[in-house]
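Ticket 4471: requesting a sanity check on a complex prediction with nicotinamide-adenine-dinucleotide. Repro inputs:
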Amino acid sequence: MIILITGGAGFIGSTLADKLLINNNRIIVIDNFDDNYDIKLKEKNISHNLANPNYKLYRGDICDKKFINEVFKKETPDVVVHLASCVSVRNSFKCPEKYLKTNILGTLNILEGMKNNNMQKIVFASSSSVYGNCRAENFRENLKLYKPISIYAMTKLSCEQLLYTYCTNYNINTVCLRLFTVFGPRQRPDLAIRKFTQNILNNKPVEIYGDGTSCRNYTYIDDVISVICSAISYDKTPFEIINIGGDRSVTLNDVVKTISKVLNKEPKIKKLPKQIGDVERTVCDNSKAEKLLNYSPQTDFETGIKNFIKWLK
Ligand SMILES: NC(=O)c1ccc[n+]([C@@H]2O[C@H](COP(=O)([O-])OP(=O)(O)OC[C@H]3O[C@@H](n4cnc5c(N)ncnc54)[C@H](O)[C@@H]3O)[C@@H](O)[C@H]2O)c1
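Returned structure tokens:
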């Protein structure tokens, strides 16, 4: 298959490219090496693939409509996996315009490129943040009320709706995966698990926002990659939104405890006020993913942390 990955130099995209290349697919990557975090990390994520004849990298911006059209005229992917995005909840309040432009107009450019070149399948990385401070015991895809509390979450929810419009009118088959916090090797440096681990290793205080009882359903990268591969092949229905989460939710306090247990080192804790846009909890119901994509998380939280720390060291 020919698979085009936007954001393919990032954490999830580069890991996905590696996996798909092993299985003899041809991979086309679009990435602008955005400086939201150290671009050397992104260069490192992809450097081993640059000489592979099955791998092609386009350095460019999904907001550049002309560039996107040119790529889509030259290449004929069977599937687009659209991961390019501004990604941080907190930063989305610092530069809301950039988030709306990249995430919504960028996605529109991808969809227009696909429509104009008769491409018919997209897998999109949405986010658990669309549930906002949802009170339901478990977050299910069919909940009626979505109240995103960050600019980032709002853009992801808007994209899901934009994708639905294009699917309905232009037959672009769509799977939106609502990813619940992803962790593991290559994890972004701005995410809690990586920051906590580095600070404990360097004897620096671990900064906890709020009282540490907020919780997240953490999803291990290998589980995410294998379910994206299933979504690439999924062809039963034209449009689906599917949660992808780990085996359970973990409080921030327990994240720190698990990391320090694996490192065998006591953390210094610094408590800070709760941050704007952070939701209280994410609790994933994976039953739809299980039913449609044969998904069940294979890596429990502690094993994932052990793998991550081994990689980081
Ligand atoms: N990591 C998570 O916990 C998580 C959770 C939910 C959803 N997601 C979504 O998964 C996707 C991948 O996330 P990630 O953690 O790998 O992030 P990442 O920042 O490592 O990867 C995103 C990539 O997109 C690229 N990019 C950003 N703006 C671009 C633009 N205008 N044009 C071209 N490329 C651009 C970046 O350079 C980066 O390489 C994102 O859409 C993110 O919103 C991630």
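Notes from triage: The domain at 2-182+221-245+284-297 is CATH 3.40.50.720 (Rossmann fold). Leaving this open until the requester confirms.
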